TrEMBL record, chain A:
SUPFAM superfamilies: Adenine nucleotide alpha hydrolases-like (SSF52402). GO terms for molecular function: electron transfer activity. Gene3D superfamilies: HUPs. This is Electron transfer flavoprotein subunit beta. Keywords: Electron transport, Transport. PANTHER family: ELECTRON TRANSFER FLAVOPROTEIN BETA-SUBUNIT (PTHR21294), ELECTRON TRANSFER FLAVOPROTEIN SUBUNIT BETA (PTHR21294:SF8). SMART domains: ETF. Residues 21-211 form the Electron transfer flavoprotein alpha/beta-subunit N-terminal domain. Belongs to the ETF beta-subunit/FixA family. The electron transfer flavoprotein serves as a specific electron acceptor for other dehydrogenases. It transfers the electrons to the main respiratory chain via ETF-ubiquinone oxidoreductase (ETF dehydrogenase). It comes from Domibacillus epiphyticus.
Automatic annotation (TrEMBL), chain B:
PROSITE patterns: ETF_ALPHA (PS00696). Belongs to the ETF alpha-subunit/FixB family. The keyword Translocase does not apply. The keyword Metal-binding does not apply. SUPFAM superfamilies: Adenine nucleotide alpha hydrolases-like, DHS-like NAD/FAD-binding domain. GO terms for molecular function: electron transfer activity; flavin adenine dinucleotide binding. This is Electron transfer flavoprotein subunit alpha. One of its GO terms (biological process) is fatty acid beta-oxidation using acyl-CoA dehydrogenase. Its cofactor is FAD.
Amino acid sequence: MNIYVLLKRTFDTEEKISITGGRIQDDGAEFIINPYDEYAVEEAIQIRDEIGGEVTVVSVGIDETEKQLRTALAMGADKAVLINTEDDIEEGDQYTTARIITEYLKDKEADLILAGNVAIDGGSGQVGPRVADMLGIPYITTITNIDIDGTDVTITRDVEGDSEKIKTSLPLLITCQQGLNEPRYPSLPGIMKAKKKPMEELELDDLDLEEEDVEAKTKTLDIFLPPNKAAGRVLEGDIANQVQELISLLRSEAKVI
Amino acid sequence: MGKKVLVLGEARDGQLRNVSFEAIAAGKKVAQGGEVIGVLIGVSVASLANELIQYGADRVLTVEDEKLGQYTSDGFSQAFMAVVEQEQPEGIVFGHTALGKDLSPKIAAKIGAGLISDATFVGEEDGEIVFTRPIYSGKAFEKITAKEGVVFSTVRPNNIEPLEKDTSRTGDVSEISVSITDLRTVIQDVVRKAADGVDLSEAKVIIAGGRGAKSEEGFKPLKELADVLGGAVGASRGACDADYCDYSLQIGQTGKVVTPDLYIACGISGAIQHLAGMSNSKVIVAINKDPEANIFNVADYGIVGDLFEVVPMLTEEFKKIKAAQV
């Protein structure tokens, strides 16, 4: 099995967000593997361990993305590829990323491509399906289970709480939903091994892409924080009175009931 | 100059979803006075066309085929692309639902367009359509616009006000015939876990439970309150991890992001991952035994108390109010 995982380095949204000049301040912030992509890495490793093959983790990122790729290698992936756009792209969007990944993957004959169902920073969930469409292979999003038998694939997919059982076949792209697995922490030997695993670094040039080919189709005009909420009110008195007061507040003040 | 905009109507159990009417309202904004065309894809969906028109669509195109009875990205993209080819739209709006999230990137890839996902507001600045969408799990927002090509967006349920239904509106309804071929994914079975409930992402009221609910049994009073208020039950990650309920109910950074009118958090401590999924709810009520719980920091109203005492009392009171209204 020739397995690829699409990984994104993301700002840990547990961090406090501050904005200067219409941009998120990320100096000194913690960066992580997008949590949904961790499910993808874990599942790829489990599939390889069960039926053999090789797991390559691919990320479109910057110099620092190497750290998250090393973590994926430490978890057990075999190879990593960093497509470094730090010098070439100022403002990319999902089109940009999908186009670059597609260009990289088009001659790789991937049997299975795994991605997270959404990244917790941008939150658009577009790159996986875009890549699959451009590669001309089917995709299934928000999966919670996968069984592979030869080229036959059976998948369980989460659809707004319902679950669908789907039959399809390889090659295939899937995006991972919570509940699929429990991603492992890298072990110490894993971390040591990861240092020696291959990490290929590419730039747009290496993929025969020009900046214009991957120019974003959308433009962010501004980034702002949600308005500060007025401090809430903790009710007092005995519980029965509080319940009465709450109901009256919801009906007359908040007017939501 | 007005644009021609396609809006995909989405049905669930034979009824159009609210988000479809919200998408039409968004489509009207994108059209800037141009034509809004409702699109319905499925089996015997034509009967829903008039309702789309009553909510503001100028006309409706339907694509019907027995292979479109269940959503698949292959089937629906073939159907939708046939509409795109016929109409050459300048704008497209979908609901940001499971279907919309799954289908929209494929359509965007096919037409080489940008896609503004999960918009919560559509406005106009200097004649340009500008969308607002949450980023960083709702901790910030971005204003974003399409640079070139088709203006394509999905809109988050419960955020854009639908137009008022006008039963006197009429419009043309016509069918596009498409032969749907080569479905590479086949749905064998659907397990309706959320069968009896209101869909979380579209619910106006959500009653959510955390570890404080203590057990699967402990979610029963929450369900009763949700039923009285016509709402849905949600949960924190803690409650899902402890097997009190299914992961499909999880609200948070991993899990669903919801923006109901009323969110009642019961026995939820308010971990930052949970807040990421619900902090943009219009009104938040916290019920927790621990007065120091973080959830009180985002709540509009708080009751320090045992949910097993407070929630049944709320249910009883709302029942009385409902009975008095009949």
